[in-house]
Structure formats: structure tokens, C-alpha cells
Write a structure and sequence with these properties.
521 residues, WG_beta_rep, mainly beta, seven-stranded antiparallel β-sheet, WG repeat-containing protein, four-stranded antiparallel β-sheet, 2 helices
Length: 521
């Protein structure tokens, strides 16, 4: 009777586990799609080369290289991962672990900001910092605000003053500490503006009337009656150019005026163009400028000089990576010119885009077509919109939908789609009637069926989803795993594929008496 009672208890416990356990089976495949192992986890996260985390009924675990539990992590969920820090969330707040498994901040903070070698945490209005080299957490006190700069300096603000609490001069206060994408902080003190290096040392005395960041480690300043182009330096900042003539700086464009007349186009460390007779400079893109002269000539200026020499037949020039530049004349007609400003494609179009892999979109009569470098029309202007792709093909769009336009079919659309996602080698994923398909460069279907979604994974694979189930295909269209899984994760760092099965395992607990009988045989 006592044994029967134990059996009932064990059966009840087994049923309890079956009802409560969320663990599911994960299958691990190598790059050749051979089954390597099976795992029992609720979820798996692949966060980085050395960071894999499993969620189990017992909590979160950092996994070893063979996906076995190595270190248990406190908390209910992974909040964020920014190498090498794993932020986790628990009932009392946020905490942090190093990716090797060391807990560095208890789970009690409202906010945590990370950088490679430090963490900045906030609880209420008190801020704390953990420095990896020291391995300790200390309070910075109650502050109005604190944050980590783009280069890893902690900036604190309190009562309208700014500090660098981890610098060589932690109590020095400033009226302004401004972060930017250079290696230097812009400061404002009582006497003016200056620069600090990474350690918090002054490399440009705070005496300038104004100072602003331009690009890289360069700054544009003004002091008393002269304009300055300053380059930051770890020891002492250098004035690379100074002038008593007015220099304007607007929209990333610096222009110098001599006696009120436009004379020079500047770059960060000095003169880019010195020319008499300039009347207007317009920035049309990064390091691209249309420069107009009094004699109505127009040229295209790049960072290293003229891309298109000044010509009297141009009114606008677009940039190009193929040394053939779309341009318009004074009548508003578009064509393309070479670096000398000579027309290679005569100006007869209403508009023209830049060349990509030898082709460009053009507009005429309100519609778009495609033209090549010689001026040959590859597709008549009968599209509402045309976009040129990096693989040399184009997508045309009209009231019927979107079409792949390619040289193989003389730039005429074969089939219409609601959306098209171009891939390399001319393949593409396209949506029709809300379903996704995978197609060859000849627009032939490479998968037999359409799916709710298709994604390219790790270059050589496709995951396809239908009615909440996921399967795997290779790029030839071969079905490698059927559409019968909950999730597929690609661990590119180990060159493995993790597949979550749709069923939950059944836990069987064998009665102790049965085990004893087997041993006695």
C-alpha cells in the first residue's frame, strides 16, 4: 500500500512537470545540415561571438561553446547586449554582467549606460560608475544628469555646471561641455571656448569668442577679429588656417569673402578652391559643390578639386561615381557631361539620375525610362517611377505594380509585383497578393510555393514562414527543413543552425520500485 502511494505521488509530480515546463527541443545542425545535438531550452539567444544565452524554467544561463549551461544569470530577461556587457532586467531593476559571466552591477538600477571599459548606472538621481580596470563600483553623487560621451568620457551636469568626474581634474567646472564625433570635447568657460583631450587636459585655451565642430578633429572658430580653422591634437591644438577676412560656415560649407566678394571655398584645414569671379556655391551632397561664376560658367567641385571643369552651357550638375555626370542646361533640359563639361548625352530629357553600373533613370513627358552611357534608350519613358539597383538592374513601377527590368528581357517588365527586394546575382524576393516568392534573375520561381515571408540568412540560406511555422531552403530552392518549426536561428560564429521544434517534450518519471525490480533481475 505504501509503495502504491509513492507511485501515485510520482505520477502526480510527473504530470505537474509536464504542465509547468516550458522547455522545448532545439535541434543543432552543422553547416552541412547534419544533426549534431538536441537541447532542452525555452529560448536561445545568440548575441555575439562568445555570447549565447538560454532561457530555462530555472532562469537564464550563459552557454558554453557546445551550448551547455555554464553560468547562471540573475534576472528575468536580457535587456540589452553591447559587447562586452550584458544588461539584464529583474524585479528590482537593471543589472549588468560581463560577457565572460562576471556580475558587475546588481539588479537594482533604473538606467544603465555602457561603454567598452565602463558602465554608468542611475538609481533615483544618484549616479554610479563601474570601471573595468578597477573592478569596483563607486557613486558619483546626486546629479541633475550624467552620460557617457561618444569617446567614453563621463560628463556630469549639476546646477548648470558641467564636470568630467573621471578625468585628471574631476572638480573643474565648465559652463558647457559639448560632445561631438571628434576625439575632443568642446568647452566654454568664463573667458570663452576651447578644447579638452580625452584625459580632460586643455589643448586649446578657452579664450575664443566662438567655436564649433566641423568634421573629424577639425573645428571652426572666431576670436576678436579673425577666423580660425583649428585641428585638435592630444598635446596642443593647431591653428591650420587663420584669416581676417570673413569666413561663413553653414550647411557644412565654409566660404571666405575678401572685401565682401566670394573668393575661396574652404575645407577643414585650409583652402579647397581659390578663384576670382565666383558668385555662388551650392552644396549638393557630401563634398560636392556646384560653383557658379560671373560669366555664367558652372563647375562641379569635389573634395580634391574639379570633377567637372567650369562650362558656360550648364546650369546644374549631379555627382556620379562613373565620371559621366548628369547635368541640365539653361533651358532646363538634361543630359550628361564628361569631366571637361562637354555633352556626351545631349540635353533633351526632362530630368536624369546618376549612372549606376552603366545605366541611369531619365524622365520625359512626366514618365521615367532607362538610358545607358552612350545615350541609347533601354526602356521608353512609360514608368511612373524607376529605381536603379546596384546589381545593374532596375525596378519600374506603374499602376499595375512593380516590375524587374533587366538586360535579359530588354528592360521590359515580365511580371508585376506589389513589392520587390533585389538580391545579389540578380535574384530577388517579391510580394504578390500578400505572399512572398523567391525568383531567379530570369524571373523564374525558385520555390514551388509562396509564403507569408521569406528572409535571406547567412548568405546561402532562406527561411520561409507560413501560418506561423518556419522552414529552411538553400539558394537553389531545395527544401532542407520542412515548414514545421517555431524558430530557426543562425549562429554564424559557430557555423551552426539552431532549430526550435513545434512540440514540447513529454517528461516521464519512472517509479522507484520499478527501477529496483530491474536492478534485481
Amino acid at each position: 500500500m505504501e509503495n502504491l502511494k509513492k507511485l501515485y505521488i510520482l505520477i502526480f509530480f510527473a504530470l505537474f512537470l509536464i504542465g509547468k515546463s516550458n522547455a522545448q527541443t532545439w535541434e543543432v545542425y552543422n553547416s552541412e545540415m547534419s544533426l549534431v545535438s538536441r537541447l532542452m531550452y525555452n529560448e536561445i539567444l545568440v548575441l555575439g561571438e562568445a555570447v549565447r544565452i538560454a532561457e530555462t524554467d530555472e532562469g537564464l544561463f550563459l552557454l558554453s561553446n557546445d551550448y551547455q549551461p555554464a553560468v547562471q544569470i540573475e534576472g528575468q530577461e536580457v535587456y540589452q547586449y553591447l559587447s562586452p556587457w550584458i544588461l539584464v532586467k529583474g524585479e528590482s531593476g537593471l543589472g549588468a554582467y560581463h560577457e565572460y559571466g562576471q556580475k558587475v552591477l546588481d539588479l537594482k538600477y533604473d538606467q544603465i549606460e555602457v561603454f567598452f571599459n565602463l558602465l554608468l548606472a542611475k538609481k533615483g538621481q544618484e549616479y554610479f560608475v563601474y570601471e573595468r580596470g578597477k573592478g569596483t563600483t563607486r557613486s558619483l553623487g546626486v546629479l541633475d544628469h550624467a552620460w557617457i560621451s561618444s569617446r567614453g568620457q563621463v560628463i556630469a551636469e549639476d546646477k548648470g555646471k558641467y564636470y568630467l568626474p573621471l578625468s585628471i581634474n574631476p572638480t573643474k567646472d565648465y559652463e558647457l561641455l559639448e560632445d561631438n564625433d571628434s576625439d575632443y570635447l568642446l568647452i566654454k568657460d568664463v573667458e570663452g571656448y576651447g578644447l579638452l583631450n580625452m584625459e580632460g587636459r586643455v589643448v586649446l585655451d578657452a579664450v575664443l569668442d566662438s567655436l564649433e565642430h566641423t568634421r573629424g578633429n577639425f573645428f571652426f572658430g572666431f576670436n576678436e577679429n579673425q577666423y580660425l580653422l583649428v585641428e585638435g591634437d592630444p598635446i596642443q591644438a593647431n591653428v591650420r588656417y587663420n584669416s581676417f577676412h570673413r569666413i561663413s560656415f553653414e550647411n557644412d560649407l565654409m566660404l571666405e569673402y575678401i572685401h565682401g566678394k566670394l573668393r575661396r571655398v574652404m575645407k577643414e584645414d585650409g583652402i579647397l578652391l581659390d578663384a576670382v569671379g565666383m558668385t555662388e556655391v551650392n552644396r549638393i551632397g557630401p563634398d560636392l559643390y556646384n560653383v557658379k561664376f560671373r560669366d555664367n560658367k558652372l563647375g562641379l567641385l569635389g573634395r580634391d578639386g574639379w570633377l567637372v571643369g567650369p562650362s558656360d552651357s550648364l546650369s546644374f550638375i549631379r555627382g556620379s561615381d562613373e565620371k559621366l555626370y548628369p547635368a541640365s542646361n539653361e533651358l532646363g533640359k538634361w543630359g550628361a557631361v564628361d569631366s571637361n563639361g562637354q555633352w556626351i548625352i545631349s540635353p533633351s530629357l526632362d530630368e536624369m539620375g546618376s549612372f549606376i553600373n552603366g545605366i541611369a533613370a531619365f524622365r520625359k513627358g512626366g514618365f521615367w525610362g532607362i538610358i545607358d552611357r552612350s545615350g541609347k534608350i533601354l526602356s521608353d519613358a512609360n514608368w511612373d517611377r524607376v529605381s536603379i539597383q546596384s546589381n545593374g538592374r532596375a525596378i519600374g513601377e506603374n499602376s499595375s505594380g512593380k516590375f524587374i527590368l533587366s538586360a535579359e528581357n530588354e528592360y521590359k517588365g515580365v511580371d508585376s509585383f506589389e513589392n520587390i527586394i533585389p538580391l545579389d546575382e540578380g535574384e530577388f524576393i517579391a510580394i504578390r497578393d500578400g505572399k512572398a516568392g523567391f525568383y531567379s534573375s530570369n524571373q523564374d520561381p525558385k520555390l514551388e510555393n509562396l509564403f507569408d515571408s521569406i528572409l535571406v540568412q547567412d548568405g546561402r540560406w532562406l527561411t520561409a514562414e507560413s501560418e506561423g511555422k518556419i522552414g529552411l531552403f538553400d539558394r537553389t530552392g531545395k527544401n532542407v527543413l520542412p515548414i514545421d518549426y517555431e524558430n530557426i536561428i543562425f549562429d554564424q560564429f559557430k557555423n551552426t543552425i539552431l532549430v526550435k521544434c513545434t512540440y514540447k517534450p513529454i517528461i516521464v518519471v519512472e517509479p522507484e520500485d520499478s527501477k529496483k525490480r530491474k536492478k534485481g533481475r
